[in-house]
Amino acid sequence: MHTSLDGFVAGPKGEMDWINVDDEIFDFAGRRTNASDTALYGRVTYDMMQSYWPTAGNQPNASRHDIEHSEWYNKVAKVVISRSLQGKNLHNTTIIASELRTKITEIKKLNGKDILMFGSPGAAHSLMQLDLIDEYWQFVNPFLLGQGIPLFKNISQTQKLNLVSTHAFLCGVVCLNYVRNRAEAQK
Predict the structure, then answer these.
(1) Which strands, in side-by-side order, build the sheet including 93-96?
(2) Which domain holds residue 35?
(3) How far apart are CA 46 and CA 112, in angstroms?
(4) Pairing of the two strands 93-96 and 174-180
(5) In a designed cystine with 37, which of 46, 113, 162, 175 is the match (CB 3.0 to 4.6 A)?
(6) Which residues contact 11 (CB under 8 A, 6 or more apart)?
């Protein structure tokens, strides 16, 4: 998830125009998405993705990234945390409206690659509160917003994280990869 240096994922009105994304970041993120076969979204992010990615690769001016991510998006299983989409039958998409802990735990136990969450701060807050996130990929942008939607909110318990890797991009963004230390949490 992209954040400002002071920990916000969007400005007070949902602004994200401060996020740096270039080919270097796209290539880095592409390697990460290729290691996953399930995409997890909140409803707002899902609606944004669904309005663009299914056909983005077919456009005459599509970039290499558009083509590659569109192909990935169209084949990957999608999970959406939403009460408003409940009962809708969407292609290759599972809607979770209740029993979040049980249903996400069941999905995590399935054979396959990683589950990757895109954006979706509200859904991320719910998953953090239920201690269901195993790994964080935080793209820290060199901006101070001062206020907005925080990445971390209403954490229900202390969570020990281990820094696995860092990557600095030429545009000034730094990617921090943290993994939950489950052994530490069980002491």
Answers:
(1) 93-96, 77-81, 36-42, 114-117
(2) 2-185
(3) 21
(4) unpaired
(5) 113
(6) 18, 145, 147, 148, 149
Contacts of 44 (CB under 8 A, 6+ apart): 120, 122
Instruction: Give dist(CA 170, CA 81) in Å, integer.
Output: 34
CATH code for the domain in which residue 107 is found: 3.40.430.10
Of the candidates 83, 4, 5, 92, the one whose C-alpha atom is nearest the C-alpha of residue 49 is 92
Q: Which token pair is 40?
A: 């997890």
Q: What are 114's two structure tokens?
A: 């990683």
49-108 pLDDT, tens digit each: 999 999 999 999 999 999 999 999 999 999 999 989 877 778 899 999 999 999 999 999
pLDDT of 104 reads 93
**For the chain, percent helix, then strand, then coil, each to nearest 5?**
35, 25, 40
End-to-end CA distance of the chain: 29
Q: How many domains is the chain partitioned into structurally?
A: 1
**Amino acid at residue number 115:** I
